[in-house]
Design goal:
The chain is mainly α and 233 residues long. The protein has two domains: 6-25 and 140-231, Endonuclease Iii, domain 2 (Orthogonal Bundle); 28-135, Endonuclease III, domain 1 (Orthogonal Bundle). It is built from 13 helices and no strands. It has helices at 6-23, 36-45, 51-64, 68-73, 76-83, 89-105, 114-118, 124-135, 145-155, 167-177, 182-195, 214-221, 224-231. α9 crosses α11 (182-195). The two termini are 20 Å apart. The mean pLDDT is 93.
Length: 233
């Protein structure tokens, strides 16, 4: 495991931010002046779905369903049919309608307290983090399998299967995004994981983190068959 020091974290942040300036992806939900509703919808649609798939769908969705009330007016089969192009349509329809019902009751107001925030149906840790990051401007990590992969490859693997409950990864992710440009750090990590630090075929030749990356150093020093087997998991 790479020693987690302020210098190591600062170097990771600096290199990722420089990379992001030139290579960061552009998505409609990353624009400024989005409503709270639009931000939460984007993060809900992004669950277990590629950002590129949602990007082509998001703008039409918020045009056809501009607020929480509009999601309650439509019947469930119609909403499922609408969501079919991005997959998981039954789960998404149920989730969106329950979430909409709760938010209409709350008159669209988002609670400031974390415990109350996570009590909202189908919100969960990731979207609660996204709300804190984007809406409340707090240093909170968008910790999903992609961010976890990059951090674990660079610093060392977690011990628990579920990233939501692994204390090492939780603490590390908060430490890494604790930066004046916390939003950009989050997006840089997600984009880098998607474009360079890929799950199965990482682009080692393009990696700006390789000089300190535990995974890369292992790849260069150990029999490659073991690393290839690891990538195939």
């Amino acid at each position: 495991m790479v020693r987690i020091t302020p210098d190591n974290v600062n170097e990771l942040q600096s290199k990722l931010l420089n990379w992001y300036k030139k290579n960061g992806r552009k998505f409609p939900w990353r624009k400024s002046k989005l409503t709270h509703y639009q931000i939460i919808i984007a993060e809900t649609l992004l669950q277990r779905t590629k950002a590129e798939t949602v990007s082509n769908f998001f703008t039409n969705f918020i045009t056809d369903f501009p607020n929480w009330d509009s999601l309650l007016i439509i019947d469930n089969p119609t909403l499922e049919h609408y969501l079919r192009p991005i997959g998981l349509y039954r789960q998404r329809a149920k989730r969106l309608r329950l979430l909409a019902s709760e938010m209409v009751k709350r008159k669209g107001k988002i609670p400031l307290e974390r415990k109350e925030l996570e009590s909202i149906p189908f919100l969960g840790q990731y979207i609660a983090n996204a709300i804190e990051l984007i809406i409340f401007k707090r240093a909170s990590p968008l910790l999903d399998v992609n961010m976890a992969r990059l951090l674990e490859r660079y610093f060392g693997e977690r011990r628990m299967a579920d990233i939501r409950y692994d204390p090492y990864l939780q603490k590390l992710s908060f430490k890494v995004v604790n930066h004046p440009k916390t939003k950009e750090i989050n997006w840089a990590i997600l984009d880098y994981a998607a474009l360079v630090c890929k799950a199965r075929k990482p682009l080692f030749s393009e990696c700006v983190l390789s000089n300190k990356c535990k995974f890369y150093l292992e790849f260069m020093s150990k029999p490659r068959l073991k690393i290839i087997e690891k990538l195939a998991r």
